[in-house]
TrEMBL record:
This is Dihydroorotase. Pfam families: Amidohydro_1. Catalyzes the reversible cyclization of carbamoyl aspartate to dihydroorotate. Residues 14-320 form the Amidohydrolase-related domain. Its EC number is 3.5.2.3. Homodimer. It comes from the Bacteria. The active site is at residue 257. The modification N6-carboxylysine is found at residue 102. InterPro entries: Amidohydro-rel, DHOdimr, Dihydroorotase_CS, Metal_Hydrolase. Keywords: Hydrolase, Metal-binding, Pyrimidine biosynthesis, Zinc. Binds 2 Zn(2+) ions per subunit. The lineage of its organism: Bacteria, Pseudomonadati, Pseudomonadota, Betaproteobacteria, Burkholderiales.
């Protein structure tokens, strides 16, 4: 049997992306705009994007940082805080620009100090989101320092997500960047759909969690470029993620969680969490899907299921990948310094065809 040499996908979307701001954004954004038509842009800036006005201004800054001729569309999100009111949710929905609210448990990850301290405090906002059909995106980890860092996602589901789902049965929820068999199972067992058949519970999957288990962080020494949150888990979990990603189930779709941090902030005594995957995102997903001989399932995962969940039209146009060996650069320019992309210096087996 000959293996696929060329793969053509509908132009895909990235449903979980960190673009940062300023000089960092100017260097990170073109990588995403090259591969993706749209992206759900995370609001964890400093200060966080909490109000509609901030999202509108951030959106303008993104649009003006785009390479000439790019038709990339940023899909904005707002950062849920203890002070988010139902009126703010209504205003965001009415704008047509805000596509979701993001829940960070306070202190769970990069720039999450303004996050929610107690879920009950945001129940009025969640009520409004449920009735308006505004999705809630969740960084699903408990912050309890007593809980082992490898268990924080599973414990979040037990302690918070099950009750949240019960309290808001019709809320559209995305459990972001899932890393465990427990998360895959929770979503698989959530069968609720709206009247149009759109699932009410979904999850995004990153390329790095599909490709690596926690050994990657310690191979021959500490490997800070494999450190992200939620942290990579053991191989059995990775296999469970590959199962759901390649199953053709519309509740699981692409979200890179590409989270750029300058090299010197990761190669440090207290290194930042996040993997930078925007520069070779589709190539990495191809490698993951190929492990299950499931390249034929990548189009739906990358280009169809997420758009349907968010009520967006499917993109027109295509993107083509070739099977060809090339070396991922060791580092790339980033905010007057540099950044180390995932699989830096390694041979890639697929390559996105760039415009001639
Ligand atoms: N994933 C990460 O490890 N880091 C993200 C934050 C996040 O998505 O939790 C970041 O903004 O750097
Ligand atoms: Zn997160
Ligand atoms: Zn993220």
């Amino acid at each position: 049997m000959t293996s696929t040499q060329i793969l053509t996908l509908t132009r895909p979307d990235d449903f979980h992306l960190h673009l940062r701001d300023g000089a960092a954004m100017r260097d990170a954004l073109p990588w995403t705009a090259r591969q993706f038509a749209r992206a759900i842009v995370m609001p964890n800036l400093k200060p966080p994007v909490v109000r509609l006005q901030q999202a509108l201004e951030y959106r303008e800054r993104i649009l003006s940082a785009l390479p000439e001729g790019s038709d990339f569309t940023p899909l904005m999100t707002l950062y849920l805080t203890d002070d988010t009111t139902p009126a703010m949710v209504e205003e965001a929905k009415g704008s047509g620009v805000v596509h979701a609210f993001k829940l960070y448990p306070a202190g769970a990850t990069t720039n999450s100090d303004s996050g929610v301290t107690e879920l009950r405090r945001v129940y009025p906002a969640l009520e409004a989101m449920q009735s308006l059909g505004m999705p809630l995106l969740i960084h699903g980890e408990v912050t309890d320092p007593e809980v082992d860092v490898f268990d924080r996602e599973a414990v979040f589901i037990e302690r918070h997500l099950i009750a949240l789902r019960r309290a808001f049965p019709e809320l559209r929820i995305v459990l972001e960047h899932i890393t465990t068999a427990q998360a895959a199972q929770f979503v698989s067992e959530s069968h609720e759909r709206d009247s149009r058949g759109v699932p009410l519970q979904a999850a995004t999957l990153t390329a790095h969690h599909l490709l690596h288990n926690r050994n990657a962080m310690f191979k021959g020494g500490m490997r800070p470029h494999y450190y992200c949150l939620p942290v990579l888990k053991r191989e059995t979990h990775r296999q469970a993620l590959l199962d759901v990603a390649t199953s053709g189930d519309d509740r699981f779709f692409l979200g890179t969680d590409s989270a750029p941090h300058a090299r010197h902030t990761k190669e440090a005594a207290c290194g930042c969490a996040g993997c930078f995957t925007a520069a070779n995102a589709l190539e990495l997903y191809c490698a993951a899907f190929e492990q299950r001989y499931a390249l034929h399932r990548l189009d739906d995962f990358a280009s169809r299921f997420g758009a349907a969940f968010y009520g967006l039209p499917r993109n027109s146009g295509t993107i083509t990948l070739h099977r060809t060996r090339w070396n991922m650069p060791e580092h790339l320019p980033y905010a007057d310094t540099d950044i180390v992309p995932l699989h830096a210096g390694e041979v890639m087996e697929w390559q996105v065809q760039t415009a001639p």
